[in-house]
């Protein structure tokens, strides 16, 4: 490649979601002299996972003690509150109840409570039915709950935009509609060339960090990384209360999660505009950008059908998958997840809220990978963020600190 007349960036971030944007900001805060570029395939930042989510600032109750998710969620939630307060991004600490609705869930609820304490979430408490009803009077099906008063809500797209604005103020450039698909490395000059397939435009950079979300496996594999772990897209659909029923929920109400899956179950979530969203379910998506059950992409579907790990997972849990699919098609089926909490709820009280697609890494033996994964190809100046599931938005600033530390070690920044 001819680099004599090209601008050469010190570092390029592939992906303008919340994690990529936080990494860019944290790099520049540490070294404002870096010539940094953010590229994204879409025509706007935070177009997918970072803006299609529940908008909850989690506290770190659910995650395996000692895992990256546990440590970075606890730290990240505090970082997120501080960032929003310092930068005028609206948030609300509306609290959350993780609610048992039958006695069979009490042991799991107690384990979650102990896990939260082990993770350093020391502001939570176990509450009985009377206290539960004083917090959420409509949750008449609840018998006991974990109350997390400092769980909050925020618009993560607004956070991402603020992070990008910070980077631009510090000198970063942003290039949208740039689908980074072709990568070459000049080992003599130690320069990466990143080319956009559609426009044939290319950029040159000394170092690169990929934070490609739903396309993280493809981008990593195309840029000298391994094929595994692969990404399986799960679509989650939300209903919401019609405006006249929004008063029924004051904050966030979650079920006791199914220990077999890294999903938190269908829950009631307050949004920053006052809406109450209900969901999401978890349905296999046949389009990585498909927000309806009828969306199908041929390449994405072919990858799913040939994914050995997914076949293994589907064989073990096909009943769960069918149950989730039925809830996606029929609202009357969806509300069966809700009636244990609010027995009088009906489909007439609800309307469609929206949907999102979650990037979930899966192992070849068919297990959903729960923790964050970053890796580095040998002898290449690249870091790949391979798996960043929930609570990545909550944890984004803490994740960014960890990746920036990794960059200083791997890239030998001075």
UniProtKB/TrEMBL annotation:
Protein name in UniProt: L-2-hydroxyglutarate dehydrogenase, mitochondrial
Membership in a protein family: Belongs to the L2HGDH family.
Entries under PANTHER family matching the protein: L-2-HYDROXYGLUTARATE DEHYDROGENASE, MITOCHONDRIAL
GO molecular function: (S)-2-hydroxyglutarate dehydrogenase activity
EC number annotated for this UniProt entry: 1.1.99.2
Entry keyword Transmembrane: yes
Pfam families membership: DAO
Keywords: FAD, Flavoprotein, Membrane, Oxidoreductase, Transmembrane, Transmembrane helix
Organism phylogeny: Eukaryota, Amoebozoa, Evosea, Eumycetozoa, Dictyostelia
Transmembrane segments: 6-28
Keyword Glycosyltransferase in record: no
Reactions performed catalytically: (S)-2-hydroxyglutarate + A = 2-oxoglutarate + AH2
Domain FAD dependent oxidoreductase, first and last residues per copy: 10-406
Enzyme superclass (EC): oxidoreductase
Cofactors required: FAD
């Amino acid at each position: 490649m001819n680099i004599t007349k090209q601008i050469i960036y010190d570092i390029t971030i592939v992906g303008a979601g919340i994690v990529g944007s936080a990494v860019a900001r944290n790099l520049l805060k540490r070294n404002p002299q870096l010539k940094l570029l953010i590229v994204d395939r879409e025509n706007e930042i935070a177009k997918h996972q970072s803006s299609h989510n529940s908008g909850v600032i989690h506290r770190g109750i659910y995650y395996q003690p000692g895992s990256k998710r546990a440590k970075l969620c606890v730290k990240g939630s505090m970082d997120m509150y501080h960032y929003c307060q310092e930068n005028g991004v609206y948030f609300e600490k509306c609290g959350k109840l993780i609610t048992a609705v039958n006695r069979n869930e009490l042991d799991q609820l107690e384990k979650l409570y102990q896990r939260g304490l082990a993770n350093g979430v020391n502001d939570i408490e176990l509450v009985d039915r009377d206290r539960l009803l004083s917090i959420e009077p409509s949750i008449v099906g609840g018998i006991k709950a974990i109350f997390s008063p400092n769980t909050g809500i925020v618009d993560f797209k607004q956070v991402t935009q603020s992070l990008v604005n910070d980077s631009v103020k510090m000198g970063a450039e942003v290039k949208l509609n740039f689908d980074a698909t072709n990568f070459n490395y000049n080992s003599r000059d130690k320069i990466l060339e990143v080319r956009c397939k559609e426009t044939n435009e290319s950029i040159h950079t000394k170092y690169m960090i990929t934070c490609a979300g739903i396309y993280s496996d493809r981008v990593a594999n195309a840029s000298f990384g391994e094929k595994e772990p692969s990404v399986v897209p799960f679509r989650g659909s939300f209903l919401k209360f019609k405006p006249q029923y929004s008063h029924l929920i004051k904050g966030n109400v979650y079920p006791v999660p199914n220990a077999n899956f890294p999903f938190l179950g269908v829950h009631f979530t307050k949004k920053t505009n006052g809406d109450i969203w209900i969901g999401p379910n978890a349905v296999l998506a046949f389009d990585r950008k498909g927000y309806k059950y009828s969306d199908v992409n041929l390449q994405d579907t072919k990858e799913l059908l040939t994914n050995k790990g997914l076949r293994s997972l589907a064989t073990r849990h096909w009943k769960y998958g069918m149950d989730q699919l039925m809830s996606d098609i029929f609202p009357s089926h969806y509300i069966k997840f809700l009636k244990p909490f609010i027995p009088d709820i009906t489909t007439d009280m609800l309307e469609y809220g929206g949907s999102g697609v979650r990037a979930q890494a899966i192992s070849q033996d068919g297990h959903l990978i729960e923790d964050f994964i970053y890796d580095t190809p040998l002898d290449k100046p690249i870091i790949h963020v391979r798996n960043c599931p929930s609570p990545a938005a909550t944890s984004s600033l803490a994740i960014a600190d960890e990746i920036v530390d990794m960059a200083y070690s791997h890239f030998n920044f001075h």
